[in-house]
Amino acid sequence: xxxxxxALIATAAVAAVVAAWIIYVPGPTAFxxxxxxxxxxxxxxxxxxxPASLASADLVKRGEYLTRAADCEACHTAxxxxxxxxxxxxKLPFGTMYSPNITPDKETGIGNWTDADFxxxxxxxxxxxxxxxxxxxxxxxxTLLTDDDALAIKAYLFSLAPVRRxxxxxxxxxxxxxxxxxxxxxLFYNSNERYQPxxxxxxxxxxxxxxxxxxxxxxxxxxxxxxxxxxxNKRKFAGAxxxxxxxxxxxxxxxxxxxxxxxxxxxxxxxxxHVEGLGTASGPMxxxxxxxLRHMTPEDIKALVVxxxxxxxxxxxxxxxxKTLLASTFPSDHEVNENARGAMIFAxxxxxxxxxxxxSPVLKYADFVGGRTVNDPTxxxxxxxxxxxxxxxxxxxxxxxxxxxxxYSDEEIAAVxxxxxxxxxxxxxxxxxxxxxxxxxxxSQ
Length: 445
Ligand code: HEC
Ligand code: HEC
Ligand code: HEC
Fold this sequence. Notes:
This protein is mainly alpha-helical. Helix content is about 40%, strand content about 5%. The chain has three domains: about 55-165, Orthogonal Bundle (Cytochrome Bc1 Complex, Chain D, domain 2), CATH 1.10.760; about 205-310, Cytochrome Bc1 Complex, Chain D, domain 2; about 335-440, Cytochrome c-like domain (Cytochrome Bc1 Complex, Chain D, domain 2), CATH 1.10.760. It contains 17 helices and nine strands. The longest helix has 22 residues, at about 1-25. One heme C binds near residues 216, 222 and 381.
């Protein structure tokens, strides 16, 4: 009897430890060794706020820099809509959610919010009426922002023209429509703590960490989530799917991550969204570059890369070493026979911009060679680009690729997608029309 009793207790204890391990996630900078201190006790250069060149600028100007670095615009703007007026649809497996209007309109926006209201939302995910906000609004990242930085962002938003636009109603299924549940979620997954510098790391590293974690929220897209949909930092930056796009592994793993990119290449990719031989940032990353990263000062981009370079490698065997050789000038008969339909569509609809070799004859942003997108055997992002097209507000002006989702059937899209990965990537994809149909439904609009 006592033996059974102890066996039961031991099993329960093991189960509790396993459950706690599954539920528990480390903080975003927990991978770095050494101790942390409160900001006020940190002796080195302050990692928060704006870069030195803007230190004496007025509050609204400082707020503008920080608002861009936090990329509030990407989520709070409907496709083709007025910036910050909300209405972007987030299509989730359990319904659709819309981002609210955060212009200073008093009725439909946040014009009546006090500083305390704003800080409660940014740090705790609590709205002025006390209701809980969903973490699709990445407050578990923004909670790291200092009060000063959050209020500078508010000052910038309040300097914009108020826009009257009622946010559409969410259509979430039970129990996901129960906002109060987020109080429990927050208990586990929102630290509600401001950024604490690591004393063993350089001031530049700490600035990079603040930019990546508090402002740029890279992990919200690039880190896989646990069963509770919280960012799981045990697999920090190991890659995840976001709005139907695959946000690749950006750990320092040399094969599947960006460990083989040198500092200069990484800086250039973040600041331009393109590096010759490494491909182009499209979809949500193209937006992150255009709306956010490319507006950062070179010093801030440098700090971001100093930080990224220390993120431990996590291998992902589904991603091969990208092919860096140019393809032949013309496709061989054998290649055409393998996928005649794909080859024909490519020749008619894509080649003029992308070229046969992987080097675009017209525009560097349309290069394929060496890029992860065409070297991803799931071909998820190739399919997204083909279905929806791509619009970039790049450092060289507006760059567009038309979407083909309406002109071509799912079968035709699958054929051209598989043709692209076979021709330009290290491993060909075998995407089906059914997968194309599903992927096409997942982008935010
Ligand atoms: C990844 C997408 C995303 C980003 C980035 C984002 N938000 Fe949001 N935000 C949302 C969504 C979605 C909601 C709605 C959450 C809900 O309904 O519970 C929201 C809600 C809010 C709210 C609450 C508004 C209300 O009427 O209740 C405020 C304020 C807000 N965001 C401000 C910001 C600011 C400021 C930034 C930049 C620092 C920002 N957001 C960045 C997606 C985002
Ligand atoms: C809104 C989601 C989102 C955010 C936020 C985001 N990324 Fe990305 N990122 C992506 C997606 C999606 C891709 C793949 C783009 C493609 O296929 O063209 C990507 C690609 C990349 C790549 C290229 C990887 C490769 O192997 O080619 C790098 C580097 C990168 N992101 C770094 C960052 C950093 C650093 C941050 C934070 C400052 C960040 N990203 C924030 C979604 C995001
Ligand atoms: C009018 C010119 C044009 C046409 C036609 C065109 N594209 Fe593009 N495509 C571009 C440009 C420009 C980009 C880069 C956008 C950016 O900077 O993110 C791009 C991006 C892409 C990407 C994403 C690359 C990456 O690394 O993230 C893929 C995949 C792609 N195109 C495939 C195709 C296919 C397949 C077709 C034919 C069905 C096609 N494109 C037709 C101009 C074009």
